[in-house]
């Protein structure tokens, strides 16, 4: 199969495009929030986000659902409750600006450093989502709600607990290492013991995070790794949990037993993948590091292997979900049926070229679609003869009989 044929086949498979868009977008957000500093991966967040967004645009143009579908989902009811049935939506830009100002003021006056940390990035991304919410067309209402819910949940999982801990302990430098102590380090230690790797879990002087001590086979000296919040995988878990819950809310209309099971399966597998990620990193250092490598293999695994494991698991999980998990009658069933049909191409009735998001277009009262520039040059609708008053700047079209 030639390159052109492969590209055409790929373009026809919207499910595959959406899957790749999900994986690349996940990767971009993960790298933006928690970049592995000192590696080439640190600079890939923006290209991956652009690629993921572009693939989503291709997969969803033209829209494969009606705007009414979005109003039937759990997401619309949740957002309706949060915004008092939409009355607060007009305040989103002001709220976004307020959050940005509050975060910057907090950094300058109360934080240990004015530099933007991981939690600041999460907060600013959420604020940016509020600023842009009103500019997204209604035909993308479901995707718009998904992004908003994603950032609300991401802040609820990763930022709010940190603020609560700092207030509770009256310590503005407090970090949320309780996840490592309770839900990661003990399980990692137990699994390593089952695999024959002798290790010890203990507190580390000067750190609130747990330490895991083991002796690599070819090194001969004890090595202690400190499982801090940054390297615990909590950020990748938070990204997945937020996106998965937002996905469930936008895809379904009610929380049935199957939906609860699906949520439980997604969160459980995310947790297991995170524990396995930590175990694999330790195993790399245990079996491969020597006096010559000086733990470089373990550090490389920490920077690259953990990230690749996360992406591989994301691709596998979402691939299974998109391929095998049935949707309930309603929102998802109509979307799936629409994806299976070839969408008719909307063309400009003057130049007869396919309309795209790149060139502004408009619709006459008679139902015909035109490029705005074509209609400006033509002055009248060729179909019904209405005189157009559309200026080149793109103001709304009015028609006279």
Structure in words:
The protein has 401 residues and is mainly α. Among the domains are: 125 residues, no CATH class; 40 residues, no CATH class. 58% of the residues lie in helices and 6% in strands. It contains 15 helices and seven strands. Strands 1-2-3 form a three-stranded antiparallel sheet, with helices on one face. It has a two-stranded antiparallel sheet with strand order 4-5. A two-stranded antiparallel ribbon has the order 6-7. β4 and β5 form a beta hairpin. α2 runs antiparallel to α11. The longest helix has 32 residues.
Key features of this structure:
401 residues; two-stranded antiparallel ribbon; mainly alpha; 15 helices; disordered C terminus; 3-stranded antiparallel beta sheet
């Amino acid at each position: 199969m030639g390159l052109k044929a492969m590209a055409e086949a790929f373009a026809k498979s919207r499910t595959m495009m959406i899957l790749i868009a999900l994986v690349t977008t996940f990767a971009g957000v993960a790298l933006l929030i928690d970049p592995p500093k000192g590696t080439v991966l640190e600079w890939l967040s923006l290209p991956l986000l652009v690629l993921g967004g572009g693939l989503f645009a291709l997969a969803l143009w033209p829209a494969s659902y009606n705007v009414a579908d979005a109003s039937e989902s759990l997401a619309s009811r949740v957002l309706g409750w949060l915004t008092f049935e939409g009355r607060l939506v007009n305040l989103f830009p002001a709220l976004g600006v307020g959050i940005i100002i509050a975060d910057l003021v907090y950094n300058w006056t109360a934080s240990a450093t004015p530099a933007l940390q991981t939690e600041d990035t999460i907060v600013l991304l959420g604020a940016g989502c509020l600023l842009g919410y009103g500019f997204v067309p209604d035909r993308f209402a479901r995707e718009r709600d998904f992004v908003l819910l994603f950032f609300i949940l991401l802040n609820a999982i990763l930022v709010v607990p940190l603020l609560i801990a700092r207030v509770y302990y009256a310590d503005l430098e407090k970090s949320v290492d309780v996840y490592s102590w309770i839900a990661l380090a003990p399980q990692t230690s137990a699994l390593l013991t089952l695999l024959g790797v002798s290790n010890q879990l203990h507190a580390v002087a000067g750190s609130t995070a747990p330490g895991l001590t083991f002796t690599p086979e070819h090194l001969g000296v004890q090595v202690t790794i400190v499982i801090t919040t940054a390297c615990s995988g909590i950020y990748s878990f938070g990204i997945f949990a937020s996106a998965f819950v937002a996905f469930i809310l936008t895809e379904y209309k009610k929380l049935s037993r199957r939906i609860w099971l699906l949520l439980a399966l997604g969160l459980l597998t995310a947790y297991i993948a995170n524990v396995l990620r930590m175990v694999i990193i330790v195993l790399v250092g245990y079996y491969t590091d020597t006096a010559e490598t000086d733990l470089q293999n373990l550090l490389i695994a920490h920077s690259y292997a953990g990230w690749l494991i996360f992406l591989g698991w994301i691709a596998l999980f979402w691939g299974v979900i998109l391929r095998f998990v049935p949707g309930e009658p309603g929102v998802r069933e109509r979307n799936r049926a629409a994806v299976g049909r070839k969408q008719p191409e909307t063309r400009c009735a003057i130049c007869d070229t396919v309309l795209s998001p790149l060139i502004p277009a408009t619709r006459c009262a008679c139902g015909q679609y035109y490029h705005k520039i074509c209609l400006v040059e033509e002055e009248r609708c060729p179909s019904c003869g209405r005189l157009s008053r559309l200026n080149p700047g793109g103001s709304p079209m009015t028609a006279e009989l």
